[in-house]
Amino acid sequence: MKNLFLQLYNGVMDADWNPLRAIPSLALRHLIMQLLSWMWCIIFSLYFGSFFIFGVTAAAHFLLIFGTFMTAATFATAPKIAKSKFKSLD
Fold first, then answer.
1. E strand or H helix at 66, and its extent?
2. Computed over its alpha carbons, how large is the radius of gyration of the chain?
3. What does residue 2 show for φ and ψ, rounded to 5 degrees?
4. Rounded to whole angstroms, how far apart are CA atoms 28 and 13?
5. What is the pLDDT along the chain (90 residues), one digit of tens a residue?
6. How far, in Å, CA of 82 to CA of 38, rounded?
7. What is the C-alpha to C-alpha distance for residues 18 and 9, in angstroms, rounded to an integer?
């Protein structure tokens, strides 16, 4: 059951699993995920009938997705930077 939820989550939120993986630019994938998150914030806040909810959910989506993508980008570039910028201590 845990694997099912993990696969469903990755299928939507992980840019290496979802259809956005075909886009080579991490920045463009990030932008598209941000736009989708804003769209869903608007949909849910209109559904609940409150623009206050929109502000809270929009800010939360932005922070979570931005943090996730920045972390992923940092982890992806760290090995490349480490090889080119730092000398081995061996």
1. helix 51-85
2. 17
3. -65, -40
4. 15
5. 778 877 777 766 777 777 877 888 888 888 888 888 888 878 877 777 777 777 888 888 888 888 888 887 777 777 776 666 656 555
6. 35
7. 10
- Tell me how far apart the alpha carbons of residues 19 and 21 are, in angstroms, rounded to a whole number: 5
Name residue, tokens 């099912």. 4
Q: Which two tokens stand for residue 51?
A: 């623009």
Tokens matching residue 9 = 């989550």
**In terms of C-beta density within 10 A (0-12 exposed, 13-18 middle, 19 or more buried), how is residue 41 classed?**
buried
pTM score, whole prediction: 0.50
Structural contact between residues 42 and 56, judged by C-beta atoms closer than 8 angstroms: no
Residue 38 dihedral angles phi and psi, to the nearest 5° = -65, -40
Sign of CA dihedral 53, 59, 65, 68: negative
